[in-house]
Specification:
The relative contact order is 0.22. Strands 1-2-3-5-4 form a five-stranded antiparallel sheet, covered by helices on one side. The model has no long low-confidence stretch (mean pLDDT 97). It is an alpha+beta fold and 113 residues long. The protein binds adenosine monophosphate. The site of adenosine monophosphate (AMP) has 12 residues, from loops.
Amino acid sequence: MDCIFCKIAKKEIPSGKVYEDDLIYAFNDINPQAPVHVLIIPKMHIISANEINDSNKDIIAHIFKVIPQLAKELGVAESGYRVVTNCGEDGGQSVSHLHFHLLGKRNLSWPPG
Ligand code: AMP
């Protein structure tokens, strides 16, 4: 499958690895929108939030269990951070492999653009 994030998870394409376990992989965004901008992905190819279901929900729960640990390691647990997933065209999703952006170390505006 020609998916850039699958290739990153399999180390076929280099990335700035931040975290890895059997189920998930986290790496620095190539075009950071904040001093901390990490992408957290399931190793399994899931297209978007639309495809979260009973068969893969444990992986999503696992991602959200790891996020506080990553936030601590990245030094944003106290200062605060944002976790966001973009879904589909209106959501601004540009890579069709589910990913969660973890952004921090700057004041993030709300509402987003
Ligand atoms: P989204 O627009 O929500 O689909 O986010 C996709 C993100 O992937 C963007 O923030 C890109 O900068 C990032 N991205 C694309 N290719 C790479 C890559 N090879 N390594 C790291 N981040 C990437």
